[in-house]
Amino acid sequence: MSQAILVAGGAGYIGSHTCLRLAEAGFTPVVYDNLSNGWEEFVQWGPLEVGDVNDPVRLAEVFAKHKPAAVIHFAAFVEVAFSIAEPGAFYGTNVGGAITLIEAARKAGVDKLVFSSTCATYGPPVTLPMDETHPQAPLNPYGRSKLMVEQILRDMDRYKRFHSVVLRYFNAAGADPEGRIGEKHEPETHAIPLAIAAARGEREKFTLYGSDYDTRDGTCIRDYVHVLDLADAHVLALKWLLDGKHSTAFNLGTGEGTSVRELVAAIERRSNRNFPLETVTRRDGDAPILVADSDKARALLGWNPRYGLDDIIQHAWAWHANGATALKR
After folding, report:
1. Under CATH, which number does the domain 191-222+255-326 receive?
2. Among 1, 169, 180, 237, whose Cα sits 20 to 30 Å from the Cα of 14?
3. SS3 277
4. What per-residue confidence (pLDDT) applies to 67?
5. Cα dihedral value 98, 236, 228, 95, nearest 10
């Protein structure tokens, strides 16, 4: 039998793509998800166990039933605006849920966890590109919640020999090229699906949040990395832990920065359509530039992103033209 891996939040965007890659690598992904932000249709490569990360009784049942070799933890809120509007609820899930999950794993004899973190733990860039030694000074409760979990994991490694790999990824984007799964949030807050919706006439306009940043065209610059490249990194990180290697953190990005205006232009080229833009004031907590230095992941994990921006947009366009519209709550 293949090794079971508990994937908390595995019915969501990045989690489901990681389940695809886990299955291809010979593992059995056991999805643990409350389906508040995930989709049952995305669970295609292993069993689904419905439950919340803040439910220790349900977690104990699932650990006992499936006896996973390790945990990959995605289950968290990710909307920056929500983190600012409702920080208590945000910390309750992102930090409280992580603690409950870690303790449930330990009680079940599991001592390995791959954690879905974010470049938002760094805050404003001090140096560019940003490597793993960059100061961590998050700008918002979202980034702070992820940093808190990182700190908890460091303490768990030091004092309880609970081993983890933290993956700080930059901007996840794209979709499965075969169209089986893709990006779908309610409400949608990510730039690429919002711009595609505007290009397809499903939204009246695309909103630029700030045009006066100190960047080459005044808009924010981000490092877009394909979701399947991220999924590959999770499998490599899992194998790193299963091989008995030490706890550590890795950045995941391409090292290529794309401004929001450049992203819009690329989607307009793909769609052969121009769409209205509305410029409004900056959002709280948005850094001007976030670009990764991922040399550590390349050197130690052997991770090399395979997809570029054109691939990301091509795969996202195909998904939103076909698969995404079929999903209903």
Report:
1. 3.90.25.10
2. 1
3. strand
4. 97
5. 10
* 116: Cα separation from own chain's centroid: 6
Predicted local distance difference test score (pLDDT) of residue 324: 61
Q: How far is CA 313 from CA 20, 35, 128, 226, in A?
A: 20, 26, 25, 9
Which residues does the chain have with pLDDT short of 70? 1, 285, 323-329
- Bond before 129 cis per omega within 30 degrees: yes
256: CB partners within 8 A, 6+ apart: 223, 224, 291, 308, 309
What pLDDT does 328 receive? 55
For residue 325, what pLDDT is reported?
58
Structure tokens at 252: 């995941």
Residue whose pair of structure tokens reads 């969501």 in the numeric block: 12
How far is the C-alpha of 11 from the C-alpha of 37, rounded, in Å? Answer: 8
Domain boundaries, the chain: 4-170+226-252, 191-222+255-326
Active-site residue among 13, 142, 224, 307?
Answer: 142
**Does the bond joining 276 to the residue before it have cis omega, within 30 degrees of 0?**
no
Q: In this structure, which topology does domain 4-170+226-252 adopt according to CATH?
A: Rossmann fold (3.40.50)
Q: What is the pTM of this model?
A: 0.95
Residue 150 to residue 99: CA distance in whole angstroms: 11
